Amino acid sequence: MSKILLKGGTVVSSKGMKKADVLISGEKIVAVGKHIHTDASTVNVSGKLLFPGFIDAHTHFDLEVSDTVTADDFSSGTKSAIAGGVTTVVDFATQNKGEKLSDALNNWHVKAFANSSCDYAFHMAISDWREDVRAELEGMFEQGVTSFKVYMIYDAMELNDREIYELMVELKKYGGIVGCHCENSGIIGKLREESVARGDVSPENHPKTRPDYAEAEAVRRFLTIAQAAQAPVIIVHLSTTEGYLEVMRARQRGVKVFAETCPQYLLLDDSVYDKPFDEASKYICSPPLRKAEDQKVLWTALKSNNLNTIATDHCSFTVEQKRAGKDDFTRIPNGMPGVETRAILMYTYGVRKKRISIQQMCAYLSENPAKLYGMYPKKGAIKVGSDADIVIFEPRGNSTITAASCHSACGYNPFEGVRTEGSINRVYLRGNLVYSNGEIVLENHGKYVSRKKPVLQ
Predict the structure, then answer these.
(1) Cα 339 from chain centroid?
(2) What values do phi and psi take at 451, rounded to 5?
(3) What is the C-alpha to C-alpha distance for residues 447 and 255, in angstroms, rounded to an integer?
(4) DSSP assignment string, 391-456
(5) d(CA 448, CA 435)
(6) Which residues contact 352 (CB under 8 A, 6 or more apart)?
(7) How many CA atoms are closer than 13 Å to the CA of 231, on its beta-carbon side?
(8) CB-count burial class (<10 Å; 0-12, 13-18, 19+) for 318
């Protein structure tokens, strides 16, 4: 069994930083401490930061949506992940109407198996709540799926309030948790219809027809349902001040609610929709990009530990795919790439700008998602017994984000030309070097992660 000693680096956790050597044997971490003496191959990581492998718990690879399929499948998407220091993604096995959950899960296993360059797990996205689906839930837990997603919008996916309540109550029996895409479908649907009827069909109308109050109302309603069910829940891709305030009010009422946001809601604003179509359409995502004032509130929430994770909602489409909505913004496929640039952006514009600490970066990108999604301490920690998923991070130097240097198949990057500080130097996945000095050196080494109940408090 091969042994590797990472010598002289600084190990980062949510609790702090410490100078320590890390000994890897096979796929596991077997020792963390100073002056480890061993016959292992030694890698000098002096001056570098050692993070637990980053986890992106919100990706959409190989997803059929808007009469097309995302540009990134599990092959290109997980290569992007590895290059961004992400050693585990949690994607969404999505149930189609009339489909069994077991069939949906099998579909995603087929998509990911033998094609993934990082480890992967699945949430189950439920679009059709039926008695036979209720009966399948226990089997999902037996197969390591312990988190579920519902939508309050989209005709193909939307559940009503009663169905969401029933799902929450049922999941409590097994210790599971449900996350929600919170937008008011009725308001948004009508606003979009009216916009098109007026001839207002350019991308600038996208945020106008998905206003902040439509997110806030749905957040409030979802958390009211959670209060009734007395169930823990997750708000995914929180984007607005008003939505955040609803989260805080619910917590004051005793609702157990976890909240995720994304780099695009922290660093981009809705002024991008004023660009010419091919540029503006790149930024069409849901929820849409918001105001600079919303960014400030979300950063403050992160600083005060009132949010729990930073994911990406990586859902990529090419410019050509986006052109399906050239004459009608409602037909533009919604989504952007993000899995490759999340860590470097959070280091540059979070840690270096003193908006969050290095320890908080570790919590939001590694430790908290591992705990919330039932993978800790196998993932999300540099501890004895943990998987040897380790990101060697070079805190010095700077570079520029370009699509040409990224691995997404969509052909562009929403942060094109943005200057960044630091870099991902090496990435180890279960003890195997998979990325080194700008190159992916081992592909298709990912494995399925069977998850347990959430442990984040």
Answers:
(1) 8
(2) -105, 160
(3) 35
(4) EEEEEEEEEE--GGGS--TTS--TTTT-EEEEEEEEEEETTEEEEETTEE-S-S---B--------
(5) 19
(6) 421, 422
(7) 28
(8) middle
Mean pLDDT by 10 residues, the chain (457 residues): 94 98 98 92 98 99 96 98 98 97 98 98 98 98 98 96 98 97 98 98 98 98 98 98 98 98 98 98 98 98 98 98 98 98 98 98 98 98 98 97 97 98 98 97 98 88
Is the distance from CB of 10 to CB of 48 less than 8 angstroms? yes
The values of phi and psi at residue 213, to 5°, are -70, -20
Extended beta strands in 34-188, E state: 41-44, 49-52, 54-59, 64-65, 68-69, 86-94, 119-125, 147-151, 177-181
Q: Which amino acid is at 137?
A: L
Q: Is residue 290 within a helix (H) or strand (E), and if so which, with residue range?
A: none
Burial (CB count within 10 angstroms: exposed 0-12, middle 13-18, buried 19+), residue 291: middle
Number of helices (H) and strands (E), helices first, in the chain? 15, 19
Length of the chain: 457
What would the two tokens of residue 118 be?
A: 């990082």
Residue pair 379/55 in contact (Cβ under 8 Å)? The answer is yes
DSSP state of 62: S
Strands 3-12 and 49-52: parallel
Instruction: Please report, for residues 190, 237, 240, 242, 289, the alpha-carbon distance to residue 219 in angstroms, rounded to integers and kept in the order given.
Output: 19, 11, 11, 9, 17
Give the sign of the dihedral formed by CA 27, CA 368, CA 348, CA 77: positive
Amino acid (1-letter code) at residue 59:
T
Which residue has 């829940």 as its token pair? 233
Nearest CA-CA partner of 414 in 296, 228, 278 = 278
